[in-house]
């Protein structure tokens, strides 16, 4: 059984981020005329290797979170922190990562204005205070997506997303503008917080999306 371990937002003090979709394409080989046929495996996934900056309480918080994950046994719920201007999703946290100023919960949200079927490349959303900008990461039920286009539709916005919607979603479903996803560590030793003489730790994390989830 996979236990989902939430990474406290206070740990994700990101220095660098490189979240991307691994389309997992394969080549059928080069033909004699120099052409190459590429085909998709049908199971693309998100990957990312953010580097974070930790010190003091946040080092211990990450150390404890990492221990709970038991290497690759359990699954991390990861906020896909980007270098953007979205308000901090959680505010300050206590030793266990519980929000002390968490009015935004998982961060700003929009809602689906209409149901969308699995495989859809467009969704219609009702935005509140923050827009889902082109190039931004969003998520629905912890499945991440990239917004690749947005068009006004009455009081709502029609968003084109990649990859296509992985699961169907009902009208009113929450769209997290601070995207979250469910990931395994790429290996059991990922992210050990080695502490330098100045007290800082800058572990490089490495995640692969859990795509076989229920």
Explain how this protein is built.
- With 214 residues, this protein is mainly β.
- It is built from one helix and 18 strands.
- A six-stranded mixed beta sheet has the order 1-9-16-18-6-3, covered by helices on one side. The protein has a six-stranded antiparallel beta sheet with strand order 12-13-14-11-10-15, with no helix packed on it. The protein has a two-stranded antiparallel ribbon with strand order 2-7.
- The longest helix is centred in the N-terminal third of the chain and has 13 residues, at 57-69.
What is this structure's SSE topology?
Layout lengths: L3 E3 L7 E3 L3 E3 L2 E6 L5 E5 L4 E4 L2 E2 L1 E2 L1 H13 L5 E5 L29 E4 L9 E5 L10 E4 L2 E11 L2 E7 L11 E3 L3 E6 L14 E2 L5 E3 L5
Parallel strand pairs: 1-9
Antiparallel strand pairs: 2-7, 3-6, 4-5, 6-18, 8-17, 9-16, 10-11, 10-15, 11-14, 12-13, 13-14, 16-18
Tally the helices: 1
Query: What's the oligomerization state?
Result: single chain
User: In one word, what is the shape?
Assistant: globular
Strand content: 35-45%
Radius of gyration: 19 Å
Order of helices and strands: EEEEEEEEHEEEEEEEEEE
Average of pLDDT: 87
Q: Ends: how far apart?
A: 11 Å
Characterize the main sheet: 6 strands, mixed
What low-confidence regions span 5 or more consecutive residues with pLDDT below 50?
A: 100-104
- SS elements, strand count: 18
What is the SS-derived class?
mainly beta
């Amino acid at each position: 059984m996979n236990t989902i371990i939430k990474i406290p937002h206070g740990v994700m003090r990101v220095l660098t981020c490189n979240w991307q979709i691994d389309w997992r394409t394969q080549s059928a080989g080069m033909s004699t005329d120099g052409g190459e046929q590429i085909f998709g495996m049908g199971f693309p996934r998100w990957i990312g290797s953010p580097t974070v900056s930790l010190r003091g309480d946040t080092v211990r918080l990450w150390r404890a979170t990492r221990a709970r994950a038991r290497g690759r046994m359990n699954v991390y719920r990861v906020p896909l922190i980007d270098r953007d201007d979205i308000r901090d999703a959680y505010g300050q946290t206590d030793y266990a990562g519980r929000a002390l100023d968490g009015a935004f919960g998982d961060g700003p949200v929009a809602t689906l204005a209409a149901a969308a079927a699995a495989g859809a490349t467009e969704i219609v959303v009702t935005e509140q205070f923050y827009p889902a900008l082109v190039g931004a990461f969003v998520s629905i039920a912890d499945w991440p997506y990239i917004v690749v286009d947005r068009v006004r539709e009455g009081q709502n916005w029609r968003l084109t997303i990649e990859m296509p919607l992985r699961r169907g979603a009902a009208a009113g479903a929450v769209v997290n503008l601070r995207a979250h996803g469910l990931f395994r560590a790429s290996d059991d030793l990922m992210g050990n917080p080695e502490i330098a003489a100045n007290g800082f730790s800058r572990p490089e994390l490495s995640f692969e999306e859990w795509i076989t989830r229920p």
